[in-house]
Amino acid sequence: MTGTDLDAASGAGAGGDPRPDGRRAGELTPRELGRWAWRQLTSMRTALILLLLLALAAVPGSVVPQQGVDALAASRWREDHPRLTPVYEWLDLFDVYGSVWFAAIYVLLMISLVGCIIPRTIVYARNIRAVPPAAPRNLRRLPDHASYESEEGVEEVLEQARAELRRRRYRLRPAEADGPGAAAVSGERGYLREVGNLVFHLSIIVVLVGFAMGSLLGYKGGVIVLVGNGFSNNLTQYDDFVPGSAFSAAEMEPFSFDVEDFEVEWLTEGRAQGQARNFVAQLRYREEPGAPEQDYDLRVNHPLQIGDSEVFLVGHGYAPVITVRDARGEVVASGPRVFLPQDQSFLSFGVVKAPAAEPDGLGLEGLFYPTFVNIGGDPVNVMGDTLNPAISMLVYRGDLGLDSGRSQSVYILEKDDAEQVTQPDGSPLRVDLQPGATQELPDRLGSITFEGVQPWVRVQVSQSPGKVVALVGVVAALVGLLGSLFIRPRRVWVRARREDGRTVVELAALDRSGGGDVALVLADIVEALRPAAQKEQS
After folding, report:
1. pTM of the entire structure?
2. CA distance 496 to 175
3. How many whole angstroms from its chain centre is CA 349?
4. Element housing 466 (H / E)
5. Strands, E, within 85-229: which ranges?
6. How many CB atoms lie within 10 A of CB 38?
7. Is residue 45 classed as helix, strand or coil in its secondary structure?
8. Cα gap 170→188, rounded to integer Å
9. 145 — phi, psi (to 5°)?
10. Distance CA 257, CA 461 (A)
11. Which helix (H) or strand (E) holds 420?
């Protein structure tokens, strides 16, 4: 054998020689590689892994403040963590649910679920139409079996068996011989279990389609409305607005409403003392311009339905009415300023901006106390009702960043180019006022007046085109799941053969789901088929 032959033999033994088509062992064509990748992606194992990844990916969204949900908290987090902020922004952790990586996991999960469900749906559809299997060769090997003898002929016995099984709603296999002088009947019931499986898997796709419709065609927006003011359903009126990918502003209903009044019932005793309950916002609305006005009491979990849109009451709070005068005595800021609650006692944070003040722009940042109490020299808020309202705010002078051209939140005071106003001893100046009080600022900068308090409500307007589709899918999935869990598929076989002038009848039953008491079912069928003479003898 030459050296070349040895090399060829060693290469063949190692699996290194190319195959007749020119490929090495294990090498895949692009089509085969794509088929392999598709099978991996659409496997149940991959779907479970992606589901776990989606749950883990949602964790940062509940831990890190989200820009679209609470811009104030997100801005404060950035100020408190200047080193981590660039990393978090690069990872899109301030907008987790809108990030590319979260969308990639979600899309892959959708593809994996659909790829898992459709083949299983086809299998279940085939099982629904399948006929019962032929009788096993030896029925006595099954755990539940019985036998008896009869004077009747084979065909007569099997005809009685077919009639009895039909009466019990068994699907029968077409008659077939089972050897010389013998025949068997096969019956199966519980096909609705396969229907339940089919409905359940199809319902998952329906639910996914419903959620996709809502994500693509719907929208969700939030706005804070002062009591006594109104709102019109157009994009410029919203404080935050999250549209679907295929949303069109032309689909928004042209409704409007005014918040006539807002009532809150406060708990005055018990463990929940000081907390609020039974929020009611009294609305007067029009479904379109020129339409008659209608009244509606907007409550939590009782939205106002207008066309395809729903108006929810999601929060409330207070807007202190503050007037700022500059050194000339001119009013440079006046009116209610929305303060955002920080805890269940409605201790609220807010800012006031007066960039037109002379000689320097003025800005205030601080807290509103609905029920102010001084305990040991420290200000404390004891409950959310406005029993003793007060404000406590720090004052800044200078450039507030409003002329930079950058968008700025009304709840955030830009202080990078501003100077904090101090008292003669160098300590920060704090404006502590109750309704009707005025405090002069040092260096003749002007004055601050706390006029009173005006409540506000936060409403959410949403349009979810696919919610009915998703609801139908969820209900159908529950029905299918119940059917697949509680319907027991059973198979029964009856074989009859002639021996020594008598007919030997063998029966067996099998519960495909396990755990069913098949012995009782089998005994009942035997009792119905045995000749009357044998029943009397027994």
Report:
1. 0.68
2. 12
3. 31
4. none
5. 144-150, 171-172, 176-177, 182-189, 219-226
6. 12
7. helix
8. 5
9. -145, 165
10. 12
11. strand 418-420
